[in-house]
Amino acid sequence: MEIKTVSTTPFDDQRPGTSGLRKKVKVFQQPNYLENFVQSIFDALDGFQGQALVVGGDGRFYNREAIQVIVKMAAANGFGKVIVGRGALLSTPAASCVIRKYGTFGGIILSASHNPGGPDADFGIKYNASNGGPAAENITEAIYSLSLDINEYRIADTADIDLETIAEQKVGDMLVEVIDPVSDYADMMQQLFDFDAMRNLLGSGSFTMSFDAMNAITGPYAREILENRLGAPAGTVLRGEPLEDFGGAHPDPNLVHAKQLVEMMTGDDAPDFGAASDGDGDRNMILGRDFYVTPSDSLAILAANARLVPGYEQGLAGVARSMPTSQAVDRVAEALDIDCYETPTGWKFFGNLLDAGKITLCGEESFGTGSDHVREKDGLWAVLFWLNVLAVRKQAVADIVTDHWQKYGRDVYTRHDYEGVPAAGANELMQGLRDAIGQLKGQDFAAYKVEHSDDFSYTDSVDNSVSSNQGIRILFTNGARIVYRLSGTGTEGATLRVYIEQPEKDPKRLEDDPQEMLSELINLSRSIARIEHHTGRIAPDVIT
Ligand code: G16
Question: What is the pLDDT of residue 506?
Fold first, then answer.
């Protein structure tokens, strides 16, 4: 095998965001752009000579080309083996599962998650460590600083590998194993959940479900698990073929982008249970008939019902949520007398807590829920968890949620996203809030009095690393909160996320519409941050 050393010059925009490097496909297609970043990943790592690397992606446009480059660069840099999903496919949680199951050195996952795909849309790449989880900040920062200094990369000068056949091949001395992308993951799900009970529910004739794979990676996984292994009727999985451009859809499982499913779930003949997953299979949305379960509530409900599920019947070591996620799970943790951790946004922050056995379940308001079975959030896992709970409790989704609110109270919650706003205005808005933090305490805003305000800072309880500037929190004396942060996953301008929450215990109000219940706080969120002044927007683009 001939190894080429290619001269290159740095790009100054390769700092990974909340979850890896996400850019427009056209940016990645610039000569040497992908190669520089991959070489910077390898240069940031130690000790991988002769070791195995997992590679796979969500099937979006440019996935296959990028995999071929990564395989050749892995060979040239001294990896002993690459494990790749057939068709260049691996969902993000399946990649995490495979890294852990085969004890590989790490993995590279190609995805821009819930962002659209296609030649004019988004692409992404991230490195996951041997625990199966996204690389910690010290690694992503090292990758970034190496990318600023890079002057050459190494690549094997060989033919492309065959990605379609499950078999072993060689690239020089390096072994390439093409695996079935679904089976390891499906086997793991079968170990965690009560497939017999779920099969009975799905075959009972009185229960129906629909799963929207959004033309993205979860299609083959959902078909294998729901239709083949659990016996759900063919057609339970909608939009089950992964397409390079997701069929033009925006593969983000929320009320706006999964509109088709949301519409199906209304009315008397709607399915009993609806769910969707995103581009790379790590997000989930849970719906009952005429009922939407917020991701924050979903986490709390899974925690409260965990003992009903075989994989968690021993109980939970602890739970964690990202800071902007509602405090619903905190109340469950209190009742279960287990620890609850509050981390910054980004799945990577759960890794140490999971590895140390401090938590079993964790989740985020951004449609992410997961557990210690892998080190990524896991869309289909959350759906199966719900299905298992439904099979045991034999109640409607809405009844399970309202029962939960009756017991624990409800954290009325909404997130307002102002997308694609000019970065300068968004930064000024955040700076304005940062400057005001000190003076907010004790101030009254109509019925709300500020108890505390800060720019969230997190100290990891395992390695003591500190992550600062993780979002502005305004906490009110009645338990309500407004949180502001800028998204770290967008590829155009800035996205301002405003998270609004208020606890409610009044049984008569528990089921009211959150936008109405929170209307005063929503107005406050706009006036305190002067959103219109800084962004020109009078209303958000997406409300979840
Ligand atoms: C990623 C991260 C999540 C984060 C989400 C939104 O998810 O893994 O931890 O909550 O982005 O981040 P932001 O608010 O910064 O846009 P995914 O599904 O995009 O990989």
Answer: 83
Q: Provide the sign of the torsion angle of the four alpha carbons 336, 338, 344, 349, taken in this order.
A: negative
For residue 423, count other CB atoms closer than 10 A to its CB: 14
Residue 50's closest CA among 173, 178, 179?
Answer: 173
Which residue among 366, 367, 375, 491 has the greatest number of ligand 1 atoms within 8 angstroms of its CB, and so is best to mutate?
366
Question: Which among 25, 192, 184 is positioned nearest to 93, based on CA atoms?
Answer: 184
**Confidence tier at 268 by pLDDT (50, 70, 90):** confident
Does residue 490 surpass a pLDDT of 80?
A: no
Distance 455 CA to ligand 1 centre (A): 19
Q: Which domains does the chain have, with CATH numbers?
A: 2-181 (3.40.120.10), 185-408 (3.40.120.10), 410-543 (3.30.310.50)
| Residue listed under structure tokens 């970065």 | 423
**pLDDT (tens digit, 9 = 90+) per residue, 108-141?**
999 999 999 999 999 999 999 999 999 988 999 9
For ligand 1, what atom is nearest to the CA of residue 365?
A: 10
Please tell me the total number of residues recorded for the chain in this structure.
544
Q: What is the pTM of this model?
A: 0.94
Q: How far apart are CA 373 and CA 339, in angstroms?
A: 19
pLDDT digits (tens, 9 = 90+) for 9-25: 999 999 998 889 999 99
Compute how many other C-beta atoms are within 10 angstroms of the C-beta atom of residue 272: 18
